[in-house]
């Protein structure tokens, strides 16, 4: 008999193999997550201050860069801790509010409220109970009044507990810390303004304004443009979309650029979020112009490619004389172009203007011509053409938003064109333009192809057959047809 009694054999509920495989699964999961959502501290990108952007001329900018670097490291650490704490628990805790880089946290001192100016002081301690009404305790020599330094100091320390929970006060009571009134007041003031700041932060998060919709890096990029004299001021946001944010800016007088900067500019910032580019990759993946580059690139670079694509497409259009924004410059994922509109008011979208019957007809023929030019002279299909991406300005239609435009020989190019035609036909037929061609006629008129199917389904099928033929040609000959064979030039429609 064992003198300590029989060891109660605790049954282990799972085997070692189970534990191991669970651990393995967790590791794999983590690995996968890391691959899908790389840390913001992208090692591939290297340190923020690299050769190309070492601009030491501005102290402010240097300070900002250093601060940014620090903040990013801090946040990365925070994220690691968050992950560690949450583990694989079903309920997780977010550390988001403790992050340094908060997209909404701009200048925190802009509207600081002095707590002494406000009547309500949320940090007023509970009624002191340690000192009775008469104002002193004890008798004779041992009397202590409420003004006693030690008592008061301890009380002050205890009051710190009333500060907002995120305000770290440490264990002052445990170490019998005695805070002087002066120090306590200073701390209280700080704690209060911190809470105000934190409250504003959350408020801003809810009504996140467009200005805050860009990440710090982008903000710095914009700041640099202003600093370099490229832009005079960035006045505000015109549009926030799923994939981009557009700002208005007054052009500056940059001495270095040989180009004249337009008095008003539009800045299109392509969003650098991962989920968005997934929707787009069907456009770019198959675009042979970007094909060999696509596979090797990281998401950040792919976003830049969208901006680049929009720039190239706009330039082609510009050269063909199609009314569209003029490219001013491209920096990473930020495209600066001329502003269509006046005095900060962007020209209205075609869907938002009411045109006279005459103007409507004029607009229709103009668009028909532009689509033909786009196809023939620019070798492009807009691929997102609708009343949402056409602006009415100076008595004519301007085309915008061409980052997704592709060449007609793109594997889905003709389908995109057909979709464009559907949008345009519908809009103008509903808008009362009797002359408006239907979508199939419009498609033939733009492409110069002669698809005879008289219903949508068959038409679509023939389009896809053509696309397939082209793809087969690529397979067999290793290169694309320069154009789809057509039965001569498309007929020119005019008023
Ligand atoms: P998105 O991909 O978000 O649709 P767009 O290029 O269509 O991006 O731009 C969004 C909006 O911003 C447009 O509908 C238009 O109102 C405005 N906008 C874009 N570019 C310009 C410009 N050059 N001039 C004036 N307004 C513009
Ligand atoms: Mn658009």
UniProtKB/TrEMBL annotation:
The keyword DNA damage does not apply. The gene is Riok3. Residues 116-127 have a biased composition (Basic and acidic residues). Belongs to the protein kinase superfamily. RIO-type Ser/Thr kinase family. It catalyses: L-threonyl-[protein] + ATP = O-phospho-L-threonyl-[protein] + ADP + H(+); L-seryl-[protein] + ATP = O-phospho-L-seryl-[protein] + ADP + H(+). GO terms for cellular component: cytoplasm. It holds the Pfam family RIO1. GO terms for biological process: defense response to virus; innate immune response; ribosome biogenesis. It comes from Zapornia atra. Keywords: Antiviral defense, ATP-binding, Cytoplasm, Immunity, Innate immunity, Kinase, Magnesium, Metal-binding, Nucleotide-binding, Phosphoprotein, Ribosome biogenesis, Serine/threonine-protein kinase, Transferase. This is Serine/threonine-protein kinase RIO3. InterPro entries: Kinase-like_dom_sf, RIO-type_Ser/Thr_kinase, RIO_dom, RIO_kinase, RIO_kinase_CS, Ser/Thr_kinase_Rio3. Residues 203-448 form the RIO kinase domain. Its main location: cytoplasm. Its EC number is 2.7.11.1.
């Amino acid at each position: 008999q064992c003198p300590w009694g029989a060891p109660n054999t605790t049954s282990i509920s799972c085997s070692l193999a189970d534990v191991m495989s669970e651990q393995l699964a967790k590791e794999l999961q983590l690995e996968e997550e890391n691959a899908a959502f790389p840390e913001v501290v992208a090692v591939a990108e290297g340190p923020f201050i690299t050769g190309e952007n070492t601009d030491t001329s501005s102290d402010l900018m240097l300070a900002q860069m250093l601060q940014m670097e620090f903040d990013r490291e801090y946040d990365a650490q925070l994220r690691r801790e968050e992950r560690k704490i949450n583990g694989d628990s079903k309920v997780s805790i977010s550390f988001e509010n403790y992050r340094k880089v908060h997209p909404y946290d701009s200048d925190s001192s802009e509207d600081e409220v002095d707590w002494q100016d406000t009547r309500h002081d949320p940090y007023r301690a509970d009624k002191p109970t340690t000192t009775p009404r008469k104002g002193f305790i004890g008798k004779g020599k041992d009397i202590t009044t409420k003004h006693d330094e030690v008592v008061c100091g301890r009380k002050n320390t205890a009051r710190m507990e009333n500060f907002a929970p995120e305000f770290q006060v440490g264990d002052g009571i445990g170490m019998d810390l005695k805070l002087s009134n002066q120090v306590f007041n200073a701390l209280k003031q700080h704690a209060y303004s911190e809470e105000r700041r934190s409250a504003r932060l959350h408020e801003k998060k809810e009504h996140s304004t467009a200005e805050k919709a860009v990440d710090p890096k982008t903000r710095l990029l914009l700041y640099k443009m202003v600093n370099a004299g490229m832009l005079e001021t960035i006045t505000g946001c015109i549009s926030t979309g799923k994939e981009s944010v557009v700002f208005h800016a007054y052009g500056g007088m940059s001495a270095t650029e040989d180009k004249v900067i337009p008095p008003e500019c539009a800045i299109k910032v392509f969003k650098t979020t991962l989920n968005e580019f997934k929707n787009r990759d069907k456009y770019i993946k198959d675009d042979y112009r970007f094909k060999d580059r696509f596979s090797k690139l990281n998401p950040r670079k792919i976003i830049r490619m969208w901006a680049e694509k929009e720039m190239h497409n706009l330039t082609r259009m510009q050269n063909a004389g199609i009314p569209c924004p003029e490219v001013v410059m491209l920096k990473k994922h930020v495209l600066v172009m001329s502003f269509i509109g006046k005095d900060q008011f962007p020209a209205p979208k075609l869907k938002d203007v009411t045109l006279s019957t005459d103007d409507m007809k004029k607009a229709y023929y103009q668009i028909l011509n532009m689509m033909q030019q786009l196809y023939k002279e620019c070798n492009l299909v807009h691929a997102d053409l609708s009343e949402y991406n056409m602006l009415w300005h100076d008595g004519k239609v301007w085309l915008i938003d061409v980052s997704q435009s592709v060449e007609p020989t793109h594997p889905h190019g003709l389908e995109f064109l057909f979709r464009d035609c559907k949008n345009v036909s519908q809009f103008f037929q509903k808008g009362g333009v009797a002359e408006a061609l239907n979508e199939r006629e419009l498609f033939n008129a733009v492409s110069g192809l002669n698809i005879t199917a008289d219903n949508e389904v068959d038409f679509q099928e023939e389009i896809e057959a053509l696309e397939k033929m082209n793809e087969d040609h690529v397979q067999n000959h290793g290169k694309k047809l320069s154009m789809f064979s057509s039965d001569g030039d498309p007929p020119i429609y005019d008023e």
